[in-house]
């Protein structure tokens, strides 16, 4: 099994080889994000090293003050004490200011990395083909861009700071302690042995529990989102109680996983304190014996005690870092998997410009299958001259939408080629392709924003007049004017609630304003009432006069405006001709048409 | 966007932080005893930590001064025992507090979920699911952490600081006063920090929610973005939002850096002053060396509590924001609720009557007429009524009123003579089943999805429902009827989803069936088959069907014509064709124009207008 891209994302049982592969791609991604920030990172490191050193110096000055300042004071010499106080004050201020600066510096770095990563994921998911989106559910992409990025943010914001600061702090204290009193230093080193075992135990145990919390929380999220998006159906079919029970179970799983994770901390944290306090007692004993014997000053003893107590403070934070590191690493693995996915409909490397398209579409020896071995469109060749309006009819699953998706290059043919004005779509510059060919589907999706924004999506630079003209052309102007703020009504807000049919009209206007040479309508009028459909069709007749069009419709009234009808069955075009010729014939279309006529009454 | 709207509403009148968080108390109440015990344990741990320096003092002033090494063992033994006790108390604190914290979170999460399930559709129309999700997950996470960590530490550390200052003063009152005076700026800065930080924190949480909404839209609307090649356009939009968030986050970091500065600076200055003062006091014999050692050891113990105030404050304000956001949803008044003493319908017949029904959205401007503007309609038991009208005439709204997805603004709807508001929602919705135009499937097997309204149905009933909806394809899915569909399962086409949704409505075996344009995504052949099968079901069931096409209308016994929220005509299809011009306008297709009243089903007299100009000869080679 491969682990390239998003494959194997839900697995936990990677082999060593696979783990290495995944880690390598995470690191490559991380490297590419960090590289442009090297300068800032070095500055940040310098700042944190200096500030930590300044902080750590404190107790040594206290020791100096007591051991040298006090005897000097007794002889009315203020100098040593003044030096100790001044030095303490100086390092304290430097330390505090630098830590504050460091906080802002790390925030800038982490935000720079995050925004870059956000943009990359966003752009890449936009670039990935529909094939990917159809198998990789929307929920998972949303999770990648929200909760996974949150995990990385947490690591960058506090985790790394904790590690760097904590690690430096411990290292500097150890150095200072050795400098002050090497015997105490040795005691401290001895304490590292139980510390190592405790931390190692915590790492291994938390790794396991931690994964469980992540899967448990993902389940809670998926169930939650699904309920909220399907709330009407939930209510209409009284699913509330069953849902509450199901959700309650998931919440309990999540709670339990969390409890276990926190439980580990409940052992780890007092364990650290215990090691720290025992070490303190030993340092006290070893130091005290020497003070009594006169080989160590009291001030130095105090400083060793202060250092020993501070030494263990960051250990807990470093352990926390391990937690956020685990979560961020898992997140980065998944994100790098998405970024590794190659679009199956890639942008051309040497794109051919087509400034002015005429709109001749040709399928050349095309065969298409979504999955290997399951041919959806068997081998065929089809020529659609520029300006022709084609009606594509046939029962559900006959391959009509697939044919349309090949023209709009949502998919590429398995073999053969689809061309526009003789240029293979795979080589056509994306900007020209999208300007020339536009597809309107049955699901009319509206983005948050105003009605005008939604129409102008077809042509971002459109003026208000153009927007209104497009709305008029499809008969949407009247109802839009009737909205609380007309064209400026927010479609998600008060009074902006539009019906399914109205959504479809807006998406039609969107296609009109885009003004493509080739227009594909896939069931685009299904939710419209008959008068609206008629208006749309009248609009279409003018619009389509000098355009190529492929219209898929269940209602055969569309055929009225078509120059040519293609009847499809099981992926094959079984009839092809002018509407009149086919109706008067004896084929499938003439039967369908008769049945449809009967249903009109 | 939504988030901005909400935050501006909220900030007008703010209760105190503590009061805002304490609104969570009802959820936390069962957990409080253990939290108090945890505080007790933490307090003991803190006191033990404060006691250690006192032992040091007696050690320094006693055995060490005298150089008597045999006396050292006792104090060291005491320090060791105190150290072990501190560790045990910390273990106790964790053990007491951890479990209740997770229970608070789980209780609140279930509470939020249940409230959201009960809130009317009207509420969900206004709230993007991204904003709801962030409340259910990250906000509640924050609240849990605060209860099991923040609250305990906040109380204990504050007490520790107070006790510690008393201890310091008892060692030497002058040094104690210096310490106390120096902590004043911290308290002041803490208050200033609240104002600065909580506003930024709220903004960042809302902006993150908005960004999540944009991400969600870019994924759900991917087909549109691709079809128009607007990926770059969407990216720009996303980028500017992400930049906004970045700005806010850096502002937040600056606020945190500010409080860090003070929390580090003030103790450092205090230490320096105390060092100077302490040594001077020692030189004039006002304090023993042991006292000096104890003073600094105690002050070091206090450093963590003082520094912790910074993140405890920001954590508290984050929690407050989280609690505010949580209660924004919990405070939302549910308008569609069960009556206090619900009536029941013993023997439902399915007589559905609309009496002068009006409906408007509560927030729609006054100059707008009611969306449903006085409807009177009677559906006899077993009768099928088609609802016909232009897009936006209120058809879908009328169907939603019948199951109380929305409540009527005035007037009433009765089922078998009982006002539907006097029935429990549970009962009402078991009598009335709906199929929507945009069919929702849940992450569950086909079987569970179809039997959603009546899980106890037999396999035979399941088969029947699938047959009626022409959903044969479901049996050919990889795992047949056990194939998982929905968000986490196989993706089905619009037509397939619609047929399963129809099967679901039929399988519920309701007394009244409400279908909102249920066949729009079906092709002509399938539609005809479904209609033929539906006829059998409709013979015995009261039904209200929103229809766009004549073929669907043909299923109905009578047709109601809806025009701008009013019913302008009711009657049989042929009657309305004859009597109502608007009806002919709405229902007759392109080529039927000109057919006068008394239209009879006969082959078309006029041929279909065909545009033949400019047709080049189709040149097609089909097959291989």
UniProtKB/TrEMBL annotation, chain A:
Main localization of the protein described in the UniProt heading: membrane
GO biological process: oligopeptide export from mitochondrion
Matches recorded under InterPro entries: AAA+_ATPase, ABC1_TM_dom, ABC1_TM_sf, ABC_transporter-like_ATP-bd, ABC_transporter-like_CS, P-loop_NTPase, Type_1_exporter
GO cellular component assignments: plasma membrane
Keywords: ATP-binding, Cell membrane, Membrane, Nucleotide-binding, Transmembrane, Transmembrane helix, Transport
This protein's name: ABC transporter ATP-binding protein
Family: Belongs to the ABC transporter superfamily. Lipid exporter (TC 3.A.1.106) family.
Organism name: Terrimesophilobacter mesophilus
GO MF term list: ABC-type oligopeptide transporter activity; ATP binding; ATP hydrolysis activity
UniProtKB/TrEMBL annotation, chain B:
GO-annotated molecular function: ABC-type oligopeptide transporter activity; ATP binding; ATP hydrolysis activity
Keyword line: ATP-binding, Cell membrane, Membrane, Nucleotide-binding, Transmembrane, Transmembrane helix, Transport
Record SUPFAM superfamilies: ABC transporter transmembrane region (SSF90123), P-loop containing nucleoside triphosphate hydrolases (SSF52540)
Membrane topology note: Multi-pass membrane protein
Ranges for domain ABC transmembrane type-1: 37-315
Superkingdom: Bacteria
A single Gene Ontology CC term: plasma membrane
UniProt subcellular location: Cell membrane
Domain ABC transporter: residue ranges: 352-589
TM annotation in the entry: 35-52, 72-92, 146-167, 173-193, 259-281, 287-306
Family matches, as Pfam families: ABC_membrane, ABC_tran
Region (Disordered): 593-624
Gene3D superfamilies: ABC transporter type 1, transmembrane domain, P-loop containing nucleotide triphosphate hydrolases
Protein known as: ABC transporter ATP-binding protein
Organism whose genome encodes this protein: Terrimesophilobacter mesophilus
